[in-house]
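Entry under discussion copied across for reference:
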Amino acid sequence: MLSDTKKTRTNLLAKPKSTWVNPSKPKPSVLSLQRQKRSSFSYNPQISDLRLFSQKLNDCETSDEVFLAVLQDIPHPPTRDNALLILNSLRPWQKTLYFFNWIKTQDLFPLETIFYNVAMKSLRFGRQFQLIEDLANEMTTNGIDLDNITYSTIITCAKRCNQFDKALDWFEKMYRSGLMPDEITYSAILDVYAKLGKVEEVLSLYERGRASGWKPDPIAFSVLGKMFGEAGDYDGISFVLQEMRSLNVQPNVVVYNTLLEAMGRAGKPGLARSLFEQMVDSGLTPNEKTLTALVKIYGKARWARDAIELWDKMRSNNWPMDFILYNTLLSMCADLGLEEEAERLFEDMKQSKTCKPDSWSYTSMLNIYGSGGEVEKAMSLFEEMSRLGVEINVMGCTCLIQCLGRAKKVDDLVKVYGVSIEKGVKPDGRLCGCLLSVVSFCETSEDIEKVLKCLQEANPKLVSLVRLLEDENTSFKTIKEELKIILNESSIEVRRPFINCLIDICRNRNLHERSHELLYLGTFYGLYPGLHNKTESEWSLNMRSLSVGAAYTAFDEWMGSLCKMVERKETLPEHFSAYTGSGTHRFSQGLASAFDSHVKKLAAPFRQSEETAGCFIATREDLVSWVQSKLPPTVLAS
């Protein structure tokens, strides 16, 4: 519903408190594990027959009757060693369980811990945690010892099955039993705590393990790095890197990938680049996931040059490329407006034997051409997709329609929309918003009706609201009720664009009163947070999230309020500022230039700040003088 809920970010303690260890006493080694001793096998001439028989069991149907029938043909008596060999050779967990239960019914020898461990490992592969827990409870009931392998298997299976509470429960049981966790168990339980968001427990366990002599492996550091990365905690990531250096643990590719993703979430592109260079210098070859993570970081930071240099390195070093990496690069080029680079990359994909352009590749190119107003290239690409049978998705359709709308090619727009719908594209909120914005571009009523006809198929209620806004007899109450219905049925990310487009339509049709009503409703429904800001020395208007028409409306409203305050001779601050943003995208139309034209037309005393891009400033004296020049002499005299 129409309500904004604030998300609070928890600040994490990056470095745990140190744990004191008595240096005069030797540390209990984490490697001193209690495990079931393996039997020392002597040469057994029956092994070949038993393995062939195990394969026969693996190949038979998975049913009690068939399995028991095959067991009648066992070539040698099921001694302890023979039974263990067969149990260890069975792959489907169902077969392992059948054979294990059959051994128990034969009562030929006492079942030791190792039999349960082998059965549990097979069940873990099948993610059968409940069966594993049942076997563990059976061991306890029958007085069979659970060793490190048993507990580790139970805990790791619980983690794989996302039964984190069970994993913690068995970990506590392990500690109460006096057994020391091994490296695998420590890493697994660290991951469980991290997934549950229990940061303090993760750090406490880490220190507890370190104090007991445990040397964390790369997997454990990967868990820590991922936890700190998801929280965007750079100090925590630094702690992980320091610990690895102090323990002389060499990160593997998985750890580097995790830390790179963490650097991206923490907003540290420079440190991510340094970490990547360190990885390459260490002799490791980055994989597709490494390169994809780095490209995303560069794209988010708008580091176009670094991204292109990285791509050149990929080609010269023959580093692995896959669909995700290619499409991430194309998407980055679209975000940064790198048309020539995207065309080179797209041509590379066409020449590739394994990574031919797919639907998302073509969508990125449509986005680039659409944003740049390259109508002919965009239409040529659309026709190429139809010719090659490449599926067009709703995003590609939206990009192309936006491009055609800005170019005033309404007939082509209607054609593209019709073909896309025929090919199975289902209009979403963004496509509806795009059509609504095109309506605001249209100059003739004929073109407006053509676009509204397309929008009628996608969202009839939006079209009805446009008609109501045009009707001067429609009450404000009706507009409010209809708009509320539409917004509640729309996803959160398209609500503000809907109102922006509706305001633009009203401004272009000289329905200024309606545009002010819509701006009020948008503010009322919490879609324009932070629009106004006041301090003792400065009042500001933040228009970054507004369309051009909505920005004009908000500014006119702001100036109207100031005029009334000047009339009433109320106290005003020394400075006024209006923020439009600088428009970092190469193809961005730029609200700043449109707003600059608007204030010049009004002769308002706002000028662009020399220090801050996309900021317009005015002093109190200039603004009051301008307002007084607009007021009738009778008002000034009074």
Summary: The longest helix spans residues 548-567.
